[in-house]
């Protein structure tokens, strides 16, 4: 897929950072609204964001395909109930092509710094391919693009192949090799079953077990695909049904520890018991925290993979990594030919890596010294004309993130439209509006499942503050965020 190399206009109306779901959605809506000139810059060499970068075996989404897609770019012929990486990436590429985004797209362009110019009311942006200027910046960077590697002594001394699952090295032949997998999160649950049958031996190093629910994935037949194509209403109703199946979890109170928590845990335990008859192994795989405190995973083939004779589960502490493998705290040694780190991402630290300087020299790191926070997860006081998509406290544990992204895109778009319509040079969220919003979020989080469920997770920052998850329903978020109230919540000039 090609993208533009045309010279950038002297001043862009909008600079969009990232060509994943968020950036492409923003680009499509800007183009439909006639807002421009705009440019989408992407640090990678292709479209798709996390779905372009993550190519490990078995990579897939845990939200149904018809719900994990843009409502304004429908796809009738999804091949499976839960989409796999290649099909999601192809969908995003097709969406960019069909909606005319390729002339606006600039690949292999990493943003390295952003500074607000108060005198000229614009952002001065440094990139790996030269400077840009834009009246407004929309960040679609997301949080799943900085792999987190464990701080294990001797990690760099290992003599075999080693890589993170998010940067899968397809040149490494794992067949008939002794493979160690460190981590049992979402990616491990997907790729372990894919490689377990081909490796000589797989040793899975688990720190904390995950709650895993049945997935019940299936192919979507040609007849259903044809019906969705011929009768768009049928597709929309199917999507709506999927929405409510997921949304009811938040409406019924799964964001708190409740009787429903215990019922869900019982279902997950039955799923484990059916697949793993070995009681000792079951104990190792049963979490000691409440379901929902960490990300709940869905899989039908992970537990059966652990029952293979060539697969072993280690739950002790890793003491160090040596050139030959892994040494446990009890002195046991595991000789390995390759190590795959399935240790997730540094989600809360992603925004701190990018130097962003707003009004009066305020940096984003300084603004967030007491924890990340933004009005509706989108706007930060002191940073005019800057809009974050998938910003702080907008992640979900129960429904499709695409629904949140669309609401955030509409919020940013309403600000951009108002700027054009009213001749505004800057819009900046009022500190009191931001504080009021964040106080409400933190109050709801204080006794939530993520804080009271007996675990620590990547939802939390280094101080234990949950700065990632939205503590309510999608309906509640969309009601508050979809339209910006400029005169009430923003300062304009």
UniProtKB/TrEMBL annotation:
InterPro entries listed in its UniProt record: FAD-bind_Monooxygenase_sf, FAD/NAD-bd_sf
Pfam family, one: Pyr_redox_3
Family matches, as SUPFAM superfamilies: FAD/NAD(P)-binding domain
Gene3D superfamilies, per database record: FAD/NAD(P)-binding domain (3.50.50.60)
GO molecular function, one term: monooxygenase activity
Keywords: Monooxygenase, Oxidoreductase
PANTHER family the UniProt entry points to: FAD_NAD(P)-BINDING DOMAIN-CONTAINING PROTEIN-RELATED (PTHR42877:SF4), L-ORNITHINE N(5)-MONOOXYGENASE-RELATED (PTHR42877)
Name of the protein in question: 4-hydroxyacetophenone monooxygenase
Biological source species: Methylobacterium durans
């Amino acid at each position: 897929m090609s993208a533009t190399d045309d010279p950038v206009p002297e001043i862009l109306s909008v600079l969009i950072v990232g060509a994943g779901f968020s950036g492409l959605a923003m680009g499509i809506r800007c183009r439909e609204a006639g807002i421009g000139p705009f440019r989408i810059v992407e640090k990678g060499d292709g479209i798709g964001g996390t779905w372009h970068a993550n190519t490990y075996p078995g990579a897939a989404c845990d939200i149904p395909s018809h719900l994990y897609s843009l409502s304004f770019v429908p796809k009738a012929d999804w091949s499976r109930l839960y989409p796999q990486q290649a099909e999601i990436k192809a969908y995003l590429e097709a969406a960019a092509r069909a909606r005319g985004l390729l002339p606006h797209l600039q690949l292999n362009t990493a943003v390295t710094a952003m500074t607000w110019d108060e005198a000229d009311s614009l952002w001065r942006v440094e990139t790996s391919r030269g400077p840009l200027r834009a009246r407004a910046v929309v960040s679609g960077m997301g949080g799943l693009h900085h792999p987190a590697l464990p701080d294990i002594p001797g990690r760099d001394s290992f003599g075999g192949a080693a890589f993170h699952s998010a940067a899968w090295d397809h040149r490494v032949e794992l067949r008939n090799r002794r493979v160690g997998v460190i981590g049992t999160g979402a990616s491990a649950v997907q790729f372990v079953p894919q490689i377990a049958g081909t490796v000589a031996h797989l040793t899975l190093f688990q720190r904390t077990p995950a709650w895993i629910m049945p997935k019940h994935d299936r192919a979507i037949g040609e007849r259903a695909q044809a019906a969705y194509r011929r009768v768009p209403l049928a597709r929309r109703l199917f999507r709506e049904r999927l929405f409510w199946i997921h949304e009811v979890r938040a409406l019924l109170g799964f964001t708190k520890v409740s009787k429903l928590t215990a019922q869900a845990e019982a279902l997950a335990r039955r799923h484990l018991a059916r697949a793993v008859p070995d009681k000792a192994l079951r104990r190792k795989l049963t979490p000691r925290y409440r379901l929902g405190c960490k990300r709940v995973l869905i899989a039908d083939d992970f537990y059966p993979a652990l029952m293979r004779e060539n697969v072993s589960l280690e739950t002790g502490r890793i003491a160090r990594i040596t050139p030959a493998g892994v040494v446990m705290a009890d002195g046991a040694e595991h000789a390995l030919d390759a190590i795959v780190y399935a240790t997730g991402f540094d989600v809360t630290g992603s925004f701190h890596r990018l130097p962003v300087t707003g009004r009066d020299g305020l940096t984003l790191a300084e603004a967030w010294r007491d924890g990340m926070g933004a009005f509706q997860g989108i706007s930060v006081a002191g940073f005019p004309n800057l809009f974050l998509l998938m910003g702080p406290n907008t992640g979900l544990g129960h429904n499709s993130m695409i629904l949140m992204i669309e609401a955030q895109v509409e919020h940013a778009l309403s600000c951009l439209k108002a700027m054009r319509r009213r001749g505004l040079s800057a819009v900046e969220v009022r500190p009191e509006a931001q504080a009021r919003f964040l106080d409400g979020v933190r109050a709801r989080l204080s006794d939530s499942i993520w804080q009271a469920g007996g675990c620590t997770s990547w939802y939390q920052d280094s101080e234990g503050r949950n700065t990632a998850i939205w503590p309510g329903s999608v309906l509640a978020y969309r009601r508050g965020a979809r339209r910006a109230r400029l005169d009430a919540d923003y300062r304009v000039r």
